[in-house]
Amino acid sequence: MTVSPPAFHIMTKPRGAICNLDCDYCYFLSKEHLYPGSSFRMSTDVLEAFTQQYIEAQRVPEVTFSWQGGEPTLMGLDFFRQAIVFQQQYKKPGMVINNAIQTNGTLLDDEWCAFFHEQNFLVGISLDGPPDLHNVYRHDKGGRPTHTRVMQGIRLLQKHRVAFNVLTCVQAANAPYPLDVYRFLRDEVGAQFIQLIPIVERDNTTGYQEGAAVTERSVTGKAYGDFLIGVFDEWVRRDVGRVFVQIFDIALAAWSDNRPGLCVFEETCGLAMALEHNGDLYACDHFVEPNHYLGNLLEVPVVDMAVSGHQRQFGLAKRDTLPQMCRECEVQFVCHGGCPKNRILTTPDGEPGLNYLCDGYKAFFSHIDHPMQVMTAELHNRRPPANVMLILARKEAERRRLFENVGRNDPCPCGSGLKYKHCCGKKRR
Ligand code: SF4
Ligand code: SF4
């Protein structure tokens, strides 16, 4: 008998791929063709069966329902009111139920936001930075920009004191401007929780993870690494403990020997599936395609699909197909080769399966090593990791003082044994 994992996660798409917007790089809009003629609305029967099976399968005290799309608010509020009713009906004694919804924010009004506040929803808002960077790819079906409408949604969430995070896609247009994006999110939006998700979009006609070509909208590995470094250098000097950037938290977890909490940086995956509007379950949100179809929950319980041979193999392949280059990489402990959906490169010695973002991951994770070590040491000593800001500021002041009056022919203050003009002085020039 196969033992089920204590917990697994399902991302639910009650409206399938249907959305009121038409963002150029959306990976899900094309899934509409999987269900020709469908209403793309989750029925009450599917919602109830899912709620019951999902709760029943979890052997942990806390369960999170994640609603996504397409645009899930297109289901209307009554659908979510019904979802809460089923959750209360089927929850186990003492169990805590959470709800998270990912939305483009353009359809929110006072009623939605009051509901989110009352039911304690965590709302994820997709926003790619200031208007000129956001509007490049994120527009509606008529090609009109969406930034103003997204910001109106955010202001409503704030008015109703709804917890929200911002999901920013890092793509070709905004990647060169890390500080403009980050400062906008921090200072103009007032975002405290930020995700910086790389856009790596396959250039094919199927919409599946096929072929090795990527679109021009995709961010390159180097550009993604530079973007993360740009944001990190600002964050680590002034925002630690008050702004939370998901990939920085993941890094700190890895440096301090904890689990990352995001499948992309886990050694194996397979515990985060995707549910379509009609009850069809797929291996992952990024693999909603026939090859990774697990079954329909009206016919097979979700727990059986979660432990099926296909799904276990899917999750283990992340580790088992890792190229030797990754196995020997010094940042493998945090990177784990990244998400399999992006493993489309070949290593210099000809092995397939290298992540398209490898350059960026390597540069970023190497760049943050020292501050991460400082934060980890603070944590081990039961002090706040935010102390890193003070420690770095002191070090930088000390360094400035050392270099202040150094002459070209003096020994370099960095301790290399070289003359200043042949060492740090040369770099500065
Ligand atoms: S394929 Fe990627 S996104 Fe999907 S579960 Fe695995 S790591 Fe996560
Ligand atoms: S940085 Fe590159 S080589 Fe290292 S583990 Fe990540 S993908 Fe592999």
Q: Could you characterize what this model shows?
A:
The chain is of the alpha/beta class and 429 residues long. The strands form two sheets. The protein has a ten-stranded mixed sheet. The chain has a two-stranded antiparallel sheet with strand order 11-12. Strand 11 (345-346) and strand 12 (352-354) form a beta hairpin. The model has no long low-confidence stretch (mean pLDDT 95). It has helices at 44-57, 77-90, 110-118, 131-134, 147-159, 178-189, 221-238, 246-255, 302-306, 309-320, 324-327, 332-335, 358-367, 369-380, 388-403, 424-428, and strands at residues 9-12, 62-67, 96-103, 122-126, 164-170, 193-198, 244-245, 272-275, 280-282, 293-296, 345-346, 352-354. Helix 1 packs parallel to helix 2. It binds iron/sulfur cluster (SF4) (2 copies). The site of one iron/sulfur cluster has 12 residues, from helix 11, helix 12 and helix 13.
Produce a short descriptive summary.
With 429 residues, the chain is α/β, with parallel strands linked by helices.
